[in-house]
């Protein structure tokens, strides 16, 4: 298998608004990030992915960009950003930027001009349609609620927005738009960045005609996914982007792709096709939702997780490359989600980290994950900041009259603000995140869970993550080894092997609070020793093993 630096890297995602505030305005900023680079370097990560820091009115916290070449004032200046890049590189780390080009902000000058007149130079940069029988052009719903179309008075027609009305979709059919995007990308790459994470990049090609979507009887809007996810020209656009921009730089690329399956992902990540290197897929993040979508709560069945992860591990093997993640700024905290933050906080956080970091692919850590930060439960909807959460609440409680407590339960379990509370640096007021009033409340458990304490305690989740990251650098079997699922039917233990030449790993992770005995199937491994684990007493490798609640144990040995 081809060896590449980005396969051997561990990435750390920063959501700047919530990371570290240097000037007391309650909002994280770029100088605040610089102050913490030594911390990240000590953790051992290789690459930092910065969620958007561009100018934005913050309807969706920076995922609505009004100027691609300016830094959001709340976060600092272009000089601060240059400084950040330099300081990252000085520490031998890399920096990748978020590329949000499925849509802009409605405050972007292209849209401001486009909406004024049908003759605007930028008119074709967006997707406009006339109304149908006095209503929207089609029945698609937007991700953040309501119709995906908004009426524009000046031109007496509608524009498409798959997210909020303040995020109009760009028209990738238009060549001039594409050239402008490529020029913008080159500009950032020429500044010396090391790659892009591409926001909903598999949404950029829409099916011509934008047909009505299938709709459930009780729903007002249809779900148009099949007409914009992995659309007809997506591979062509990505190949063009590669040809016109990416091929000239040695950079990392990962495309966020809701609705992507293994077969499509092979096409996106097969290097010989010259598209991207990795995708963020969502299958494993959808396993704890019912048919009603994200807010429809369901308990994870471990067998579903095994089936999905294994299909991706073997599916992309030797063809493409997996990204590995359990957290990001859109997902609840994994220790609260698949672990047990009340009774097995440290153990389950370490178990989940082990499970992920021993897989084949490039691991992505989300800020605070290395501390085991947990979900939050604010009493009042007034304390929430996320547009998706607030719209969901209003729609369910105010429009549909659903029980408030039931709706809050979904928000507590799945809301994006779970991931967006400030990073807990120490036990001083506001967890040391800011000296001012934070833009969103700090999780009240910060006296127990914070970085300063984690650094001090050598058994902390932080130090365990350091070890996981270091092991990946020391053992190429972790990066390149073949994956094989064992005990597929076991309901509590997720177990798999990795093997490369004569080296072998056996990874055992207990996703339950029961002590379980397992019969290890016939694995041809000798000279095995425990490489890493989250319990102190470790059994020697033998045919029957006892796995403690939320235990993670990795044996390393030689293949016979
Ligand atoms: C995916 C991003 O991760 C999310 O935060 C954002 O709301 C949407 N794309 C729209 O840009």
Automatic annotation (TrEMBL):
It comes from the Bacteria. Its EC number is 3.2.1.10. Residues 13-420 form the Glycosyl hydrolase family 13 catalytic domain. SUPFAM superfamilies: (Trans)glycosidases, Glycosyl hydrolase domain. The keyword Cytoplasm applies. GO terms for cellular component: cytoplasm. It is found in: Cytoplasm. One of its GO terms (molecular function) is oligo-1,6-glucosidase activity. Its main location: cytoplasm. InterPro entries: GH (IPR017853), GH13_cat_dom (IPR006047), Glyco_hydro_b (IPR013780), O16G_dom_2 (IPR045857), SusG-like_C (IPR056300). Keywords: Cytoplasm, Glycosidase, Hydrolase. It holds the Pfam family SusG_C. The keyword Ubl conjugation does not apply. GO terms for biological process: oligosaccharide catabolic process. It catalyses: Hydrolysis of (1->6)-alpha-D-glucosidic linkages in some oligosaccharides produced from starch and glycogen by alpha-amylase, and in isomaltose. Gene3D superfamilies: Glycosidases, Golgi alpha-mannosidase II, Oligo-1,6-glucosidase, Domain 2. Belongs to the glycosyl hydrolase 13 family. This is oligo-1,6-glucosidase. It comes from Salipaludibacillus aurantiacus. The lineage of its organism: Bacteria, Bacillati, Bacillota, Bacilli, Bacillales.
